[in-house]
């Protein structure tokens, strides 16, 4: 039986998850979707679509979709659904898990990698995070859960953008990009988004290419340290020891290739010192497979709980193919990807998204993994 794709939908209360879900469920796309609700809060699907006050754990809906509330843990619910599908008792093609507003999507995502029975039936497709434009800045200031949800995302939708000014929206996007440069950000009005932006995003597919937000890489407050060979780009806007405006150029910053470059960025004022941040590393020289495996293994062991998502496309010594790795918390996987093209620039590109990332350790350690 083909693996059943799963989408995790997360976001703070009021961000519009339910509106988006209703659209996905009721749109005439001909797909049969099972929705797992992680809690029945005040705003849940059942008010409009489902018959409320039912004891039934799984409800078949008129359009062939299935709704399910979790009374036990996620694992047993997923097993139950897969068993019913195998026996022909339920017909659905994919699953959307709606998490609670405060949930950390990490453990939900890990279920699909750690549990062999679950991995035999399901394929985790992506994590989608919704953000309420009106309250996002305050929620991100006050709640780490909200910041973590952004760090985990493969796709970010901003709802209620009509309630804020263009400059407020731009500032919110700027802030989000620094937390997570790998997830595209789009505005969603009343859940009006194309299904192609919600389903089959292949966020956890090892061979999907690593796209980073181009504005993030160009943005003012990145320091570029151009070595003879590669360059590291890491965003200095959130270093804790300087939150004033910087006006320093790049003169006089000669450092050996691979060494951390600690000069501040230029003239960009940051108001937010978020603990969820991203670190991007690029290098054109080949990496040594054994050294890199040891280093990444050690990093994941020590910093795993604080690493939300990480992914890389690597130029490794000894193979003409790309090596792709990714992970969630302590779980990391890697695979051989396609061949490097004859005219393609061979370079390693990695992004780490996490809480209080140890940038200097990452930079130094990666520098020591060169072949």
TrEMBL record:
It catalyses: GTP + H2O = GDP + phosphate + H(+). PANTHER family: COBW DOMAIN-CONTAINING PROTEIN, COBW-RELATED. Zinc chaperone that directly transfers zinc cofactor to target proteins, thereby activating them. Zinc is transferred from the CXCC motif in the GTPase domain to the zinc binding site in target proteins in a process requiring GTP hydrolysis. One of its GO terms (cellular component) is cytoplasm. Residues 222-257 have a biased composition (Basic and acidic residues). This is Cobalamin biosynthesis protein CobW. InterPro entries: CobW-likC_sf (IPR036627), CobW-like_C (IPR011629), CobW/HypB/UreG_nucleotide-bd (IPR003495), P-loop_NTPase (IPR027417), Zinc-reg_GTPase_activator (IPR051316). One of its GO terms (molecular function) is hydrolase activity. Pfam families: cobW, CobW_C. Belongs to the SIMIBI class G3E GTPase family. ZNG1 subfamily. Keywords: Chaperone, Hydrolase, Nucleotide-binding. Residues 222-273 are annotated as: Disordered. It comes from the Bacteria. Residues 276-370 form the CobW C-terminal domain. It comes from Malikia granosa. SUPFAM superfamilies: Hypothetical protein YjiA, C-terminal domain, P-loop containing nucleoside triphosphate hydrolases.
């Amino acid at each position: 039986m083909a693996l059943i794709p799963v989408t995790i939908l997360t976001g703070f209360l009021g961000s519009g998850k339910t509106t988006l879900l209703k659209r996905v469920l009721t749109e005439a796309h001909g797909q049969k979707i099972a929705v797992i609700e992680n809690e029945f809060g005040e705003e849940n699907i059942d008010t409009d679509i489902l018959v409320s006050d039912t004891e039934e754990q799984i409800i078949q809906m008129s359009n062939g979709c299935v709704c399910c509330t979790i009374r036990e843990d996620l694992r047993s619910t997923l097993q139950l659904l897969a068993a019913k599908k195998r026996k022909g008792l339920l017909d659905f093609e994919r699953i959307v898990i709606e998490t609670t507003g405060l949930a950390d999507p990490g453990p939900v995502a890990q279920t699909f990698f750690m549990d062999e029975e679950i991995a035999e039936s399901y394929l985790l497709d992506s994590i989608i995070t919704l953000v309420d434009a009106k309250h996002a800045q305050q929620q991100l200031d006050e709640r780490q859960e909200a910041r973590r949800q952004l760090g985990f995302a493969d796709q970010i939708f901003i709802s209620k953008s009509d309630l804020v000014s263009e400059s407020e929206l731009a500032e919110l996007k700027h802030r989000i990009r620094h937390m997570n440069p790998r997830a595209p950000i789009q505005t969603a009005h009343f859940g009006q988004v194309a299904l192609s932006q919600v389903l089959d995003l292949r966020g956890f597919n090892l061979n999907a290419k690593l796209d980073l937000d181009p504005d993030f890489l160009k943005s003012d407050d990145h320091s570029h340290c151009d070595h003879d060979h590669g360059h590291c780009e890491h965003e200095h806007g959130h270093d804790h020891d300087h939150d004033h405006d910087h006006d320093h150029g790049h003169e006089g910053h000669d450092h050996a290739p691979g060494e951390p470059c600690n000069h501040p960025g230029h003239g960009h004022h940051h108001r937010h010192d978020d603990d969820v941040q991203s670190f991007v590393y690029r290098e054109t020289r080949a990496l040594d497979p054994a050294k890199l495996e040891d280093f990444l293994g050690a990093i994941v062991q020590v910093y795993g709980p604080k690493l939300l998502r990480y992914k890389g496309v690597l130029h490794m010594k000894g193979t003409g193919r790309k090596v792709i790795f990714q992970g969630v918390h302590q779980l990391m996987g890697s695979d051989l990807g396609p061949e490097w093209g004859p005219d393609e620039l061979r370079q390693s590109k990695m992004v780490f998204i996490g809480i209080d990332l140890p940038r200097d350790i990452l930079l130094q350690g990666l520098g020591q993994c060169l072949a």
